Amino acid sequence: MRFDITVLPGDGVGPEVITAGVAVLKVVAKRSGHEFNLHYDLVGGTAIDEFGVALAPQTLKLCNGSDAVLLGAVGGPKWDNPEARVRPEDGLLALRKELGLFANLRPVKVLPVLADSTTLKPQIIKDVDLMFVRELTGGVYFGRPKRQWRTNRGRRAIDSMAYSEQEIERIVRVGFELARRRRGKLTSVDKANVLESSRLWRKVVTEVAEEYPDVELDHMLVDACAMRLIRQPIYFDTIVTENMFGDILTDEASMLAGSMGMLASASLSGIPQSGEQTFGMYEPIHGSVPRRAGQNLVNPIATILSCGMMLRYSFTLEKEAEMIEKSISKVLEQGYRTYDIMEQGKTQVGTREMCELIIKNLADDASGTGVVKDG
Ligand code: IPM
Ligand code: MG
Predict the structure, then answer these.
(1) Which residues pair with 36 in a beta bridge?
(2) 92 lines ligand 1 (CB under 6 A)
(3) CA atoms of 204 and 139, how far apart (whole Å)
(4) CB-ligand 1 contact for 136 (6 Å cutoff)
(5) What is the 57 CA–ligand 1 centroid distance (Å)?
(6) Ligand 1 atom with least separation from CA of 92
(7) Which end of the chain, N or C, is less surrounded by CB atoms within 10 Å?
(8) C-beta separation of 11 from 68 below 8 A
(9) How far is the centre of ligand 2, averaged over its atoms, from the C-alpha of 140 (Å)?
(10) Are strands 280-284 and 68-73 parallel, antiparallel or unpaired?
(11) Is 311 in the pocket of ligand 1 (CB under 6 A)?
């Protein structure tokens, strides 16, 4: 099969981790006989420098015409002026909104081999395997009004957390569908004791739940969830929540897995059904980490795992996705670590070396006829 991938390396460490992800995709193509056509473009700060906007119309068009988008990271001190008219993050938010990527999947799986490299006690994080389903195109990120203004009693600002029942229903369905295919447990996270949007959220969740009698559902307040994630993360299977709660909770949850450098994400435009291709954008959950850029230092695993999610959800290449995951586990078992997950007695390697090791494991029994066209 032939797939078109728009590749947006972005800013900071983005290009380095994307180089690693693309290298892995090339090996997968070769092994599996599929054809990946790569189309490179700019987003974020680099796009501001080149086009004056964080996401140019032609870039959006390129994404729209592709089967999937691979994105590195955006942002950096160069564009960090609060007075700036455009910000790199606008490019990311526009991509999500314009491509209709309402369902953000962020799996958090603790690999046994990394059990000692987190700040939490190994017995707390043992066997943690949870899936966040974060709503990505609504809520306070996009609600109107949203502005700053001056009054005669000083400056004021407003953001609005808004949700329609349709927006809630479609993301909640993603939660139920994934929970059904996992361990059958869904936790819906809200702040229904305070927020109207959360009270609607909870009503809609309860209504949709009637169609999923096989899924065990519970509602949890976001503050309690933040606590439970640290106290007893094993409690969770699938978690569905609104945009900003999901943003905050997934950074917190990434620490269970040892590092932000381990966490991948998929942002999908539909409910993933097994055997069906869903359009999506794939990116590591970490940012552009400008202070680490260009040093061959950062962990490429989050991006490589994101490529795995692309194979799974957008191309339905489940076997190939698992191959990547297995290869990563093997390299970690062999004792190789990037700086962010380094422990005593292990071998520290850089971005490129980590990628090469993962490829070596993948390629050990490589044979095939696929091609990658760089465009
Ligand atoms: C994320 C990031 C983004 C978000 C930023 C870069 C706009 O933190 O993907 O989690 O807040 O959604
Ligand atoms: Mg975030």
Answers:
(1) 3, 372
(2) yes
(3) 15
(4) no
(5) 21
(6) 7
(7) C
(8) no
(9) 14
(10) parallel
(11) no
Are the C-beta atoms of residues 188 and 217 closer than 8 Å to each other?
yes
* Tokens (6 digits) for 181: 């295919």
Site to substitute for ligand 1 among 8, 43, 69, 89, most atoms within 8 A of C-beta: 89
Q: What is the pLDDT along the chain (375 residues), one digit of tens a residue?
A: 999 999 999 999 999 999 999 999 999 999 899 999 999 999 999 999 999 999 999 999 999 999 999 999 999 999 998 888 999 999 999 999 999 999 999 999 999 899 888 889 999 999 999 999 999 999 999 999 999 999 999 999 999 999 999 999 999 999 999 999 999 999 999 999 999 999 999 999 999 999 999 999 999 999 999 999 999 999 999 999 999 999 999 999 999 998 899 999 999 999 988 789 999 999 999 999 999 999 999 999 999 999 999 999 999 999 999 999 999 999 999 999 999 999 999 999 999 999 999 999 997 654 445 666 776
Task: Please calculate the CA angle 48-53-57 and round it to the nearest 5 degrees.
Answer: 130
Indicate the DSSP class of residue 211. T
Q: How many CB atoms lie within 10 A of CB 221?
A: 16
Ligand (nearest to CA of 251): 2
Instruction: Decide if 141 is catalytic.
Output: yes
Whether ligand 1 lies within 6 angstroms of the CB of 7 is answered as no
Using a 10 angstrom Cβ sphere, with 0-12 exposed, 13-18 middle and 19 or more buried, the burial of residue 196 is exposed
CA distance 48 to 88: 7
Whether the Cβ atoms of residue 59 and residue 41 lie closer than 8 Å to each other: yes
Separation of CA 254 and ligand 1 centre (Å): 14
Among residues 248, 185, 244, 196, which one has the least CA distance to residue 219?
Answer: 185
Respond yes or no: is residue 214 known to be catalytic. Answer: no
pTM of the model: 0.94
Domains and CATH numbers, the chain: 1-104+279-375 (3.40.718.10), 129-255 (3.40.718.10)
Which residue's CA is minimally distant from atom 12 of ligand 1? 247
In this structure, the number of other CB atoms found within 10 A of the CB of residue 80 comes to: 12
Task: Let me know: does 357 contact 349? Beta carbons within 8 Å.
Answer: yes
Strands 264-268 and 103-109: antiparallel
